[in-house]
Structure prediction request, 304 residues.
Amino acid sequence: MKALKLATRKSRLALWQSEFVASALRQAHAGLEVDLVPMSTRGDEVLDRSLAEIGGKGLFLKELESALLDRRADIAVHSLKDVPAESPAGLVLAAVLPRADWSDLWIDAGGVAPWQMPPGSKVGTSSLRRQSQLLRAWPHLQVVPVRGNVETRLGLLHSGRVDAVILAAAGIDRLDIALSHRRVLGPPEFLPAPGQGVIVIQCREDDGEIMRLLEAVHCPATQQRVSAERGVVAALGGDCRMPLAALAELTDGSLNLRARLASPDGQECLDAMATGSAKEASALGRQVASALLDQGALRLLSHL
Prediction:
């Protein structure tokens, strides 16, 4: 194969990720051409409503997946945290790239920590997962839903419409955005979205030639970690809209998996943790999901 058509969203971050994948494939396969096919998705176009209202993060994928199924593209590049637990029939996540920084960042104009902000301070985020953990830890803050790309969200901070925003560290780092103040939000207060910081490549499951090409950029260790995290998502219904956080850490062939499901107001919070073999990553995810279900996860989810 001499050329690959790569479907991508049009945002600057999506294009960066796609160019990163294209470069890695060109380096791994001498003479291979990779051409980007930028596309607009409904998730990018509808910015006046939350993702939960219009159908979830999967709306960032549908047009790209249609291009794969229609053979207008050969591969598509996604942020894994935006990808539902199950791919559409005929498609597969064929390659998982090495994980970048998985943490969330608290970004404000003056370097003030969340617990130091005045009551009622406005924090911009469109994620129920971030909202629930933020309000659980610091209930004196006010969450303001925001949509749009990284630059748009930072613009709301610079214009004073919000006092702080929460963004993924991986996106900030990949775009090389210099920030005067950034604070990592990590455990125990914050766990990331399942698959956060990971780029994946999707293709048709019957295209063996392309799948063999993608093996060169696949990271088995990252695959094990995200299989555990996404195992929790799948067992709880596979809905990207749920306020679910999960983090798997790999040490000497063993995975330690933590997961959290919380109500959007932070008043209710369920935590579960388990350790097991990396070879049984998906099963470990189901085990942790079972522990959440035993604590009442279905009741909590039914209220969303």
About this structure: The longest strand covers residues 254-262. The radius of gyration is 19 Å.
